[in-house]
Task: structure prediction
Amino acid sequence: VASSVPRPAMAAAISDVVPEDDRRRAYGFHYWAINLGFAVAASVAGLLANVSWQLVFGLDASTSVLAAALLYVAMRYATPATQSTAPSSSSAAAAAASASRASWRDMITGTLTDGVFMLLVLQGLMDACMFSQVSVPLAAEMKSDGLATQYGPLIAINGVLIVLLQPTITQVSSRIRPSLVMGFGCFLVGFGFFLTTFCALWWQYAISIGVWTLGE
Result:
């Protein structure tokens, strides 16, 4: 839960400070950077865990605090334009507050009645449910096959492939209809996790991770 808390705020911050024409590339670089860190962390954490779990959790917490500090310094001046703070009468303030409440109601109602957007939310939820298997069930499955010490290096395949392939795949997929890209991506994610059912050896897990990573 804690690791996912920054995601909506980060996405909104990128939207705030990056011009619309550059946002696709900005989000791509953001995701690329996350997975570059993940590829390193997944491999290193397995080695550090053999030394001390306290070291793993301590370094994880420390890097999170460091990231917060860096973001604060980098983003403190990059805030959206604020409205004028000129004094207004109480009646004008009340009218503004009422309009604000109405706009919130309209936004919520409009969102819930937007069929395409709600399908997108459902698709995102289903994807999140599949990817949540990576952190615990997949590790448990590998442990049952005697591959506990190989979980870190194998899961690092995910980050390495994204670092290597995402810039190219992003450029290619930008020329294809988004609905086709999303549909095919979701299929690969589901199929990749389905392949885990038949995995028992390290190279079989590597193939399944490669498939759902391409979908991701």
